[in-house]
Structures are given as C-alpha cells and as structure tokens.
C-alpha cells in the first residue's frame, strides 16, 4: 500500500553512514525529511546532497532532521560523500541509508516499476513531530529538487499546525495568511488581533500570527 498524507510514517531501523539508526529515535520529538536517490555517483543527486548539507542550519532552526537513502551500500556511500564534499564545497552532515535490501524503499513505496525496476524514484517525505506524513513529492531523475521550497513548506506546515490558518500561493515567511473557513468573520478579531481583511466571505486574510 502506498503511503498517503496523514498516514503514520512507518518506523524502521537501518544502517547508515553515521551508524545504525531507529527512525523514530532519530527524529525524537522533531520533524523529519526523508529523501531518496536512485543510486550513488549520480550527478543530479550529488548536487542535491550538497545543497542539503549547506542548509543544515536552516533545517535545525525548524527542529527538522534530514535523512537520505540510496539503494547502494555504505562503502559506496563513503566514496560518494567524498566526491560530494569536493565538488559541492561542503561537508555532508546527515546520515545516508544503505538500502541494498530495498527494505526502506519498499516500506515507503519509493520504487516505481514503470520508472525503474531497480532504483528508487527521487521521493521526498516530510514527517511531522506527530510521526504523520505531511508531504509527499516524487521527482523524475532529470529534475533536481528545490530544497528552498521544502523549507517553505515546512514553515507553512509548522505554522498551520499551531494556528487556524492556511498559507496562500507562493507564500513566504512574514506574508499574510488565510483565515481558516471554520472561523466566523465576527470571531476573527479575538483570535487574530493584528487585524484582518475580508476579500470575499470565504477569503479572509490576516498577518502571520506567530511573528
């Protein structure tokens, strides 16, 4: 069965470049990003792992840990990390799972036979601090992932988990947000004292409440 939004993210133990981990223990009470790669020494993924390493502080600010996966083994991973560090001018600072037995890949439905019978597609899962799946995106091998967008999504998910709001198209930190439809317009001032604007009865905007 494929995972869907709102499902509990399956726990697993796996050998990684930083030792064996239990996924739930690794995440603790924080959020997580699990993302897969078709194989080691692939050019697009080399740039992606470098990009994530450079964003480590941004993920940490959001109480979010990252965990990568490739179906190749740990010895391959070590050589690949050396290449990533050299070519991307960074230091890989998060674990990479060696998933040669495809255990985690199959648990998270990362292998799509019509794309490749042997390799994972380039999937991304954002896991909330409640261990629920909050976002799933699968990319083709030819298109590099936008990790700034994933940070933006985490900002939105964490904000909307704590306030009765949603974020509009292309929203960025600090911009106005949408008041949830379940809140009556007359109740908005008490819940969102920074003010609000009624554009349509179903579209009410308010400043970001946690700033």
UniProtKB/TrEMBL annotation:
<comment type="similarity">
    <text>Belongs to the peroxiredoxin family. Prx6 subfamily.</text>
</comment>
<comment type="similarity">
    <text>Belongs to the peroxiredoxin family. AhpC/Prx1 subfamily.</text>
</comment>
<dbReference type="Pfam" id="PF00578">
    <property type="entry name" value="AhpC-TSA"/>
</dbReference>
<dbReference type="Pfam" id="PF10417">
    <property type="entry name" value="1-cysPrx_C"/>
</dbReference>
<dbReference type="InterPro" id="IPR024706">
    <property type="entry name" value="Peroxiredoxin_AhpC-typ"/>
</dbReference>
<dbReference type="InterPro" id="IPR013766">
    <property type="entry name" value="Thioredoxin_domain"/>
</dbReference>
<dbReference type="InterPro" id="IPR019479">
    <property type="entry name" value="Peroxiredoxin_C"/>
</dbReference>
<keyword id="KW-0049">Antioxidant</keyword>
<protein>
    <submittedName>
        <fullName>Alkyl hydroperoxide reductase subunit AhpC (Peroxiredoxin)</fullName>
    </submittedName>
</protein>
<feature type="domain" description="Thioredoxin">
    <location>
        <begin position="3"/>
        <end position="159"/>
    </location>
</feature>
<dbReference type="InterPro" id="IPR036249">
    <property type="entry name" value="Thioredoxin-like_sf"/>
</dbReference>
<keyword id="KW-0676">Redox-active center</keyword>
<dbReference type="InterPro" id="IPR000866">
    <property type="entry name" value="AhpC/TSA"/>
</dbReference>
<keyword id="KW-0560">Oxidoreductase</keyword>
<keyword id="KW-0575">Peroxidase</keyword>
<dbReference type="InterPro" id="IPR045020">
    <property type="entry name" value="PRX_1cys"/>
</dbReference>
